[in-house]
Design a protein that fits this description.
Blueprint: H1 9-21, H2 23-31, H3 37-53, H4 67-91, H5 118-146, H6 150-156, H7 158-161, H8 169-176, H9 180-203, H10 212-222
């Protein structure tokens, strides 16, 4: 997250990577507040376009922690701005809204009015958790590929993603030419490596490494 602050080419590239990685949770939140999917996609594109054009996280206080919290506050503020814009257009003002300020300690971000705010917030966190899981799985797949163990990763991946219901470890052992005990150990190691990979992804979105375990707990709860 800190790499994405500032106006340098590297910062803009890092911010672009963050936006691409976390498109899904923002879209999920906006979809709960938009009349249809096409409108939600247009609003999501507009949100990220403004964020990228204005170096949207340059003013974020790194002492206040998580990129997840900033992004959720920013998208709520954006939706509030868009509603204000629509109301002004209906009154004939027509002046475009430029703000993308997120919540700060001194000035709370404008919350999008929503009678069911908790549900969109939970959807945002759920999509955020799935995004982190996908990023961690991709990193782990690359790690195993570089070690020449892609076949092992693909065979054991269902035990990471919860898709192993109809699979047997004995069959995986035969497929990998391993004994069943070795497969159990490999799955245990793979799960441990996945947890480490998720924590590594979280570390890119928090300022203080002490926040990683708390963020990990919250995101695991969001997957339930």
């Amino acid at each position: 997250m800190l790499e994405a602050r500032g106006d340098s080419a590297e910062a803009k590239s890092a911010l672009g990577d963050l936006c691409a990685a976390y498109y899904a949770p923002v879209f999920a939140f906006i979809r709960r507040n938009a009349p249809d999917e096409d409108s939600a996609r247009d609003l999501t594109q507009e949100f990220f376009a403004r964020l990228l054009a204005r170096g949207g996280i340059a003013g974020v206080d790194p002492q206040r922690g998580r990129f997840r919290s900033f992004l959720l506050g920013a998208v709520k503020h954006f939706l509030g701005d868009m509603r204000d814009h629509d109301r002004r257009l209906k009154r004939g003002a027509g002046r475009p809204i430029e703000s993308l300020d997120a919540e700060t300690g001194a000035s709370p971000g404008l919350q999008a009015p929503d009678l069911h705010a908790a549900a969109p917030d939970r959807e945002f966190d759920h999509k955020w958790a799935l995004t982190l899981l996908d990023l961690a799985l991709a990193a782990l797949a690359q790690e195993y590929k570089e070690a020449g163990k892609s076949a092992q990763f693909e065979a054991l991946k269902p035990w990471l993603t919860g898709d192993s219901g109809n699979l047997s470890q004995a069959e995986a052992a035969r497929q990998l030419d391993m004994n069943e005990g070795a497969v159990k150990v490999a799955i245990h190691r793979l799960r441990r490596r996945l947890r480490d990979a998720i924590k590594n992804e979280i570390s890119h979105t928090v300022k203080d490494r002490a926040d990683i375990d708390g963020e990990m707990r919250e995101l695991l709860e969001a997957l339930i």
